[in-house]
Design brief:
- With about 280 residues, the protein is α/β, with parallel strands linked by helices.
- The protein has two domains: about 15-70, no CATH class; about 70-265, Rossmann fold (3-Layer(aba) Sandwich), CATH 3.40.50.
- It contains seven helices and twelve strands.
- The strands form three sheets. A five-stranded parallel sheet has the order 10-9-5-11-12.
- The longest helix has 19 residues, at about 50-70.
- The protein is globular and about 65 Å long.
- The structure holds zinc ion (ZN).
- Zinc ion (ZN) binds near residues 14, 16, 24, 27 and 29.
- The site of zinc ion has 6 residues, from loops.
- This promotes the activity of RNA polymerase II.
């Protein structure tokens, strides 16, 4: 009688921690999806069990805090880092954007026109020294990838850490998809309501509108040929606040255990930093 690897006693208690394309990497069985979470943004078809998620969150955060002195930053995309609309939605006074010379930070993507928020480049460069960064968007996978490529073309800041509707199809956002301990995560989003379970981690930023808002009479930045201030806009002020949070978090030594440190006690969110 040959021993079947699938019924091998050493694997009989397998917790199916890491599953790829439906097959457990340890025991090669096909566990149900009910107890696991998708992490396609890291590797296509990857799912982690709840236990594996908790373990990995803790481990990555300990390494990050001790070795790199970095916290985690989860950034929303639309209205936080960029504003995009369908080209067909441009007002008459905005049509010059697709005809003549385009202002800096403006890109056409399929049927959409995308404006990068002023200061994004400097913001990412500086924030990257203090944080491991994620993008978390309710947009679909291809949209998320494309837009992130505009602001991080060489994957310097986000690598593949772009969470989209593919992993997170629900209306709300959750830190379950972020492989870091919640005690070390700062969220930045223009919409508070999508984070019902993580308000304390949340910094609220003013919505960035470059193009005309549907149904609103106010003249847009694009129509005025103006833009949000670079030096005193929301992202510049956010960076100042993030530096303070980082410095306070690391002001006394981080112990081996995470339990004594919690960035949420510093943020007390949802909070809107001055000038953001
Ligand atoms: Zn298994």
């Amino acid at each position: 009688m040959t021993m079947n690897v699938l019924s091998s006693p050493s694997h009989s208690n397998c917790g199916h921690w890491y599953v790829r394309h439906g097959i457990c990497l340890t025991c090669k069985k096909k566990p149900s999806h009910a107890e696991s979470l998708p992490f396609d943004y890291l590797f296509s078809g990857l799912r982690l069990s709840q236990e594996a998620v908790s373990y990995t969150k803790r481990l990555t955060t300990l390494i990050s805090l001790h070795t790199h002195k970095k916290l985690y930053l989860v950034l929303d995309l639309d209205h936080t880092l960029v504003h995009s609309v369908k080209v067909s939605k441009l007002s008459e006074a905005e049509k010059y954007l697709i005809e003549g010379e385009q202002p800096q930070g403006l890109k056409l993507y399929e049927s959409r026109i995308v404006k990068v928020r002023p200061f994004v480049k400097d913001f990412l460069k500086e924030a990257n020294k203090l944080f491991n960064m994620y993008v978390y968007t309710k947009g679909d996978f291809l949209y998320g990838k494309k837009i992130v490529k505009l602001i991080d073309p060489n994957k310097t800041y986000f690598e593949d850490r772009v969470i989209t509707r593919r992993e997170s199809p629900d209306h709300n956002k959750t830190l379950d998809h972020v492989l870091a301990d919640e005690r070390g995560i700062v969220i930045v989003d223009d919409t508070v309501a999508v984070w019902p379970h993580h308000m304390r981690n949340l910094l609220n930023i003013t919505k960035y509108f470059y193009f005309k808002k549907d149904g609103i009479n106010k003249v847009s930045y694009a129509e005025r040929k103006r833009d949000e201030s670079r030096s005193n806009g929301a992202l510049a002020n956010l960076l100042k606040y993030l530096k303070v949070i980082h410095s306070e978090f690391f002001s006394c030594e981080v112990k081996e255990e995470l339990d004594t440190k919690d960035v949420r006690l510093l943020i007390k969110g949802p909070f809107k930093p001055y000038g953001c």
